[in-house]
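Worked example
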Amino acid sequence: MSNDFHKPALFDGSAFEAFQGGEDPAHINRVAHETAGALLNRVREDPHPEVIDRLLTFTDDHGIDAIAELWARANPRTLPGSLWRIYLLRALIRQNPEQTAYFFERGTEVIPSIDPVVAGAESPTGPREITELADQILRGLFTGDFAIALDRASAFCRIMAQGCASIADDAEIGAPETASTLTTRALRFETIGADLTQSAGLWRSDNLD
């Protein structure tokens, strides 16, 4: 990995709205899969607490671009694509935990499912609780049931989508630009949530590569 990344890259809403999955050229795709598989297997075989802590805080020290360089363009329903999406969600949460908690709380109020239970955030969910949830999900990839961690992240995305959509409805008359931005964000969350659900199923059938 390049040593050029020394400072965390700022992560704002525009980066999330512009996020797109996609196919990689063959050599980039191969590197993405090899690095993701090697990292996950190595850590899960010997989940040393200090190593896990470094993985949790890697993007805090090096920026989200350091992860994007490896995995951002991988197919969404692959191991590197799934790892990228979890790190992306964590970066979004940590960049603005107050706003994220607000959207999440609204989502838990309106979503007609058990997703709040699956996500597993403490209630009421404030900035501290939503940040802890992000770390719990990421940690679960390396130390727990990988599929359950993906399911929790997927539930988080669906809750966020519902929250963003609900707040967009509130803003539609007085602030149409804000409503449009939040609607786009809700769709992004829905897409990522669906991808993570599919990846969880592939992991359980030993087909996530």
